[in-house]
Amino acid sequence: QVQLVESGGGSVQAGGSLRLSCASSEPTDNFYCMAWFRQAPGKEREEVATVDHSGRDTTYAHSVQGRFTISRENNKNRLYLQMSSLKPEDTGEYHCAASLYNWCEYTYRGQGTQVTVSS
């Protein structure tokens, strides 16, 4: 059973930064795609950022473009999300996800880490 465990969440003021980390119990080298999603109260789950196996191809939600950076270290079995210039609307629970497939169906998801941004 694959386990993904997020860490690094917390409370920060607007304009601040956080770095989220996701540790995998399985070699991340096995995952074609990895991603970060977020869920805010009363809102639908949003795909925040994705990264392919090589780490070179990334995508971002328009709302975080230029402020967030997704990266992965397959030799450490970790996925990261560097978040800068945080806004109150970035508040939510952030989950990492992984896919074995190149069509990026995310079979595995972590329990999440809470990010709260105050104005």
In short:
By secondary structure, the protein is mainly beta. The chain has strands spanning 4-7, 10-13, 18-24, 33-39, 46-51, 58-60, 68-73, 78-83, 92-99, 108-109, 113-118. The N and C termini lie far apart (40 Å).
Order of helices and strands: EEEEEEEEEEE
Gap from first CA to last CA? 40 Å
Give the total of beta strands: 11
Shape designation? globular
Low-confidence stretches: none
Task: Write the topology of this structure.
Blueprint: E1 4-7, E2 10-13, E3 18-24, E4 33-39, E5 46-51, E6 58-60, E7 68-73, E8 78-83, E9 92-99, E10 108-109, E11 113-118
Parallel strand pairs: 2-11
Antiparallel strand pairs: 1-3, 3-8, 4-5, 4-9, 5-6, 7-8, 9-10, 9-11
What does the model show?
A hairpin with a 6-residue loop joins β4 and β5 (46-51). The protein has 119 residues and is mostly beta strands. The chain has strands at 4-7, 10-13, 18-24, 33-39, 46-51, 58-60, 68-73, 78-83, 92-99, 108-109, 113-118. It has no helices and eleven strands. It is globular. The mean pLDDT is 96. The strands form two sheets. Strands 2, 4, 5, 6, 9, 10 and 11 form a seven-stranded mixed sheet that branches.
